Amino acid sequence: MEIAMSSLLGAHAVVVGAGIGGLATAKLLSSYFTEVTVLERDAFFDRAEPRVGTPHCRQAHVLLNAGLLELLNFYPELERELELAGAVRARVAVDILIETPGLDPWPQRDFGFDTLCMTRPLLEFTVRSLTMKHANIRLQPQCRVTKLQISEDQRVTGLTYEQAGAAGEITADLVVDASSLGNMTLETLDACGIPRPDETDIGIDLGYATGLFRLSPNASRAWRGVIHRPTPASGRGGFVFPCENESWQVTLSGMHNDRPPEDVPGFIAFASTLRSSTIYDTLKEATPLGAIHRFAFPHSRRRRFEAMTAFPQGLLPIGDVVCRFNPAFGQGMTVAAQEIGVLRRLLDERIGTPAPLAGLAPAFFKAIQNVLAAPWSLAESDFMYEKTRGARPADFAQRMQFTGALMRVAAEDAGVHRLLTEVNHLMAPPTVLRDPQVVEKVSARMAAAT
């Protein structure tokens, strides 16, 4: 790939972490830097396989429609390649049965867009394969970053790493931390004497488990996927999604250390305790295709980088390093993709400027707040559970009352249902649900309830 010299912002960019966010960031940066290197602790496989360093990748993942559309901006062929690799297309709000407390099931309406169902390893392998096609991107697996290099004026100028027992060093104009936990960024702030960002946690102690199954050919069902939302009293939920190789991913979850068992009989018994029997009826005649894999998620966390008064130039954290959400909402990959879209706009604005990377991180932190607002608001809905830890928003009771009435209006009103679906897929901002006509309908429903 040839890069126009006039669009270059630097000679070398390094991305730490080869998840979906890291790979897509590398693809973006390849248009602005002569060379891009991606460093990853795990080994890469020549097929779709789970990585040791990402145990949660065995759990069911969802790429919301907004995330797919954003990734298509970087990989126009992605949708076609995923389907060729076995991803299953399902029509949103038609093929996906949604069970919500008090509204089991949701009405099925066609809003004209699809979702692709697949395992996380398949999505990651496909994105990695497309990324590796670019000559100026180099992927370096089994490589552990040990420290970022910092100049006297507190600029990140590169990093040191270990690979196969040997130490190495890389010089870079920009280092992107897409490592999920963000320890590299926090340790660099410590080394610079810069206070770490404030953190807001929502403690949920989510436990979830996933197994692959072959469903019975005799099963009678009018859906291609199931989302079972928990009640505040139970906290138990579940998902069923088709995936490659004619198999199905089934995920069960529980809040506040109520963890599904990892043996198949116990897993199926846990499904029998859900509010409806949809998932249990599916599982009891299904054939397991391997072990049940469990994962724990202690809290949603938002780091307030946007409030910092100083930040090292040459360093940019993205994705989960900035904000991570309850994975049951399926927002993580989509939010990361949207953040990368914001980064692209910022980089475009800096082409031809004297110091294009100066102040990039603070500008990025402020620009992504609109991206984070909706998914973080949904994460705050976990305060409906009595044991959830953290600072409950002052208006939480009013918000939940509005949301409850909104859901009932949406179940009856196709127009409101469409808006709610677009917001849930991060295609539209939550403000569309505060349109006067929508608020009028919701207020009438709230008044009738009282």
Description:
Helix 1 (20-29) packs parallel to helix 4 (120-131), helix 11 crosses helix 12 (414-424) and helix 11 (396-412) crosses helix 13 (436-449). With 450 residues, the chain is an alpha/beta fold. The protein has helices at residues 20-29, 65-74, 78-84, 120-131, 183-192, 264-271, 278-283, 332-350, 360-367, 369-380, 396-412, 414-424, 436-449, and strands at residues 10-16, 33-39, 88-91, 96-99, 114-117, 137-140, 143-150, 156-163, 166-171, 174-177, 199-214, 225-228, 237-243, 247-254, 287-288, 293-303, 315-317, 323-324. The chain starts with 9 loop residues before the first strand and ends with a helix. The strands form four sheets. Strands 4, 11, 12, 13, 14, 15, 16 and 18 form an eight-stranded mixed sheet that branches. Strands 6-2-1-10-17 form a five-stranded parallel sheet, covered by helices on one side.
How do the helices and strands line up, and which of them pair or pack?
Layout (H helix, E strand, L loop, with lengths): L9 E7 L3 H10 L3 E7 L25 H10 L3 H7 L3 E4 L4 E4 L14 E4 L2 H12 L5 E4 L2 E8 L5 E8 L2 E6 L2 E4 L5 H10 L6 E16 L10 E4 L8 E7 L3 E8 L9 H8 L6 H6 L3 E2 L4 E11 L11 E3 L5 E2 L7 H19 L9 H8 L1 H12 L15 H17 L1 H11 L11 H14 L1
Parallel strand pairs: 1-2, 1-10, 2-6, 4-12, 10-17
Antiparallel strand pairs: 3-5, 7-8, 8-9, 11-14, 11-15, 11-16, 12-13, 13-14, 16-18
Task: Please give a handful of descriptors for the protein shown.
450 residues; 18 strands; 24% strand
Brief rundown of the structure:
This protein has 13 helices and 18 strands. With 450 residues, it is α/β, with parallel strands linked by helices. Strands 4, 11, 12, 13, 14, 15, 16 and 18 form an 8-stranded mixed sheet that branches.
